[in-house]
């Protein structure tokens, strides 16, 4: 990161939390703090702001923004929470979140996978929440085996209590490095990145699902005390009590996220009976799962950034008579490489009305043609609606699955819906 | 495995170790382009714990991270099936990490290179910079494939020995060394065009099919050709 954006981001953080910051660092009265001083202060700023607070870090490839939101809402049972709910998940975002809530004794911080070791060290977090690791934007992201190794080493050097998904072998292996852990059977739909043992490279034995073990070195799925039953829509706690979830957020991935959130809340002494009414209130997270009603049609927006995310999105699609629009870009935040489209199985879309759009819609078109899924090419959501309304004046619903910038473009077109 | 000699047997080597990003695309497009011509196909996925069958027609190897790459090379060498299949005249299409390990040597440590499967006369080491981005190259005219387009993401540098030939001349990107991209030797072909190299280059997929089944009828241009042309126009 160059100096200027860093300074700018820090200045923003300092501006918002100036008074609290000057107390936290003892370096000024707030009025003189600007970018120049902020940069000098920066090396210890996160540690200073985190001191004395019970911080939870939340990391994963998918679902970290949503799970952070679920955990924060559950922990509000205790009091004020400092959290980066808009997904600014690197240290400057953590500084802003903590500076904005100087009185909060608890912080819940979504943390970028790469930054987890550093942020764990600096914040001395008491809880680290880990859900899943899978391939994501490989033109710039770290190799995930390497990432898991860094997590494992960082956790081994901390006193943090891990709350982690035992069903994801890479995550479990990382979490097994920690001195204390709560294991959650949270499920794993995408398995293509975990056929091999993270410890020795052996081919994992993965049945009966969700059990897994390595026949070569003996690494195995840890014993779980919490579990999600997606079909029954329940979470079972360590006492064996089943709790009905009844979330407003759709899909099995969010049931898993909720199970992790309930286990994390329990680590802070909040019982599921207290946490559930709070997490049930949440119906959309930073525009994800939002519905726009336009021209009498409910258009639901699903964000999917990588193969595992697309798989989860397909699982929450409405019944087959509801048309779906797929939109893909390949800008820097999306990853410049569209190769991942070939890791997703699109055959589940056969028989559904499918539209492709976005800057890389030709890639999508070839991908669907290869999977023998019929599709139509479109320029915009509005154009699709015009076409559909002409044929079917009583149409009421359309789903949209888009990757990052494609999703933001659609959201912006409808006024940055939350 | 089927014993009908008319069935095209596509063998996907170690998808558990070597399938980083879109490698499945090569399998899907080969199968589709064969079946559109009425050639029945069978896809065999070989896990790293399983023996490699020797009676396949086209063997595919994908990309992988450093450690899986080393494991895959060790297992393929110990197994011997891929080498025997290549000696029997099977076609081999290997991408990125897979390309490196079917060569003579590969690995990060120039002083201590690791042995490959040895079915393609190339040697790979580690470059100073990572090659990430769109790549364009002109294939050896003897192969009748023309200009290819893809995405590369690797730190390897590869030199082509006397028994093999460079697959292509690099137009954009790095490939082997900034001058050439990929290599071939008989019906064994390696490339740094990772992931869906065959979907993005239908002519390359058809080359592999011709190697195994002889003359094949042309297919009407479709989305593969359109994507190929669109990517070339976008990056050149
Ligand atoms: Zn093992």
From TrEMBL, chain A:
This is Lipid II isoglutaminyl synthase (glutamine-hydrolyzing) subunit MurT. Belongs to the MurCDEF family. MurT subfamily. Transmembrane segments: none annotated. Residues 61-169 form the Mur ligase central domain. Zn(2+) binds at residues 197, 200, 214, 217. It catalyses: beta-D-GlcNAc-(1->4)-Mur2Ac(oyl-L-Ala-gamma-D-Glu-L-Lys-D-Ala-D-Ala)-di-trans,octa-cis-undecaprenyl diphosphate + ATP = beta-D-GlcNAc-(1->4)-Mur2Ac(oyl-L-Ala-gamma-D-O-P-Glu-L-Lys-D-Ala-D-Ala)-di-trans,octa-cis-undecaprenyl diphosphate + ADP; beta-D-GlcNAc-(1->4)-Mur2Ac(oyl-L-Ala-gamma-D-O-P-Glu-L-Lys-D-Ala-D-Ala)-di-trans,octa-cis-undecaprenyl diphosphate + NH4(+) = beta-D-GlcNAc-(1->4)-Mur2Ac(oyl-L-Ala-D-isoglutaminyl-L-Lys-D-Ala-D-Ala)-di-trans,octa-cis-undecaprenyl diphosphate + phosphate + H(+); beta-D-GlcNAc-(1->4)-Mur2Ac(oyl-L-Ala-gamma-D-Glu-L-Lys-D-Ala-D-Ala)-di-trans,octa-cis-undecaprenyl diphosphate + L-glutamine + ATP + H2O = beta-D-GlcNAc-(1->4)-Mur2Ac(oyl-L-Ala-D-isoglutaminyl-L-Lys-D-Ala-D-Ala)-di-trans,octa-cis-undecaprenyl diphosphate + L-glutamate + ADP + phosphate + H(+). The keyword Zinc applies. Pathway: Cell wall biogenesis; peptidoglycan biosynthesis. The gene is murT.
UniProtKB/TrEMBL annotation, chain B:
The active site is at 96 (nucleophile), 194. Keywords: Cell shape, Cell wall biogenesis/degradation, Glutamine amidotransferase, Hydrolase, Ligase, Peptidoglycan synthesis, Transferase. Pathway: Cell wall biogenesis; peptidoglycan biosynthesis. It comes from the Bacteria. GO terms for molecular function: carbon-nitrogen ligase activity on lipid II; glutaminase activity; transferase activity. It catalyses: beta-D-GlcNAc-(1->4)-Mur2Ac(oyl-L-Ala-gamma-D-Glu-L-Lys-D-Ala-D-Ala)-di-trans,octa-cis-undecaprenyl diphosphate + L-glutamine + ATP + H2O = beta-D-GlcNAc-(1->4)-Mur2Ac(oyl-L-Ala-D-isoglutaminyl-L-Lys-D-Ala-D-Ala)-di-trans,octa-cis-undecaprenyl diphosphate + L-glutamate + ADP + phosphate + H(+); L-glutamine + H2O = L-glutamate + NH4(+). One of its GO terms (biological process) is cell wall organization. Substrate binds at residue 130. The keyword Nucleotide-binding does not apply. It holds the Pfam family GATase_3. Residues 9-201 form the CobB/CobQ-like glutamine amidotransferase domain. InterPro entries: Class_I_gatase-like, CobQ_GATase1, GATase_3, Lipid_II_synth_GatD. Its EC number is 6.3.5.13, 3.5.1.2. Belongs to the CobB/CobQ family. GatD subfamily. HAMAP family: Lipid_II_synth_GatD. Forms a heterodimer with MurT. The lipid II isoglutaminyl synthase complex catalyzes the formation of alpha-D-isoglutamine in the cell wall lipid II stem peptide. The GatD subunit catalyzes the hydrolysis of glutamine to glutamate and ammonia. The resulting ammonia molecule is channeled to the active site of MurT. This is Lipid II isoglutaminyl synthase (glutamine-hydrolyzing) subunit GatD. It comes from Thermobifida cellulosilytica TB100.
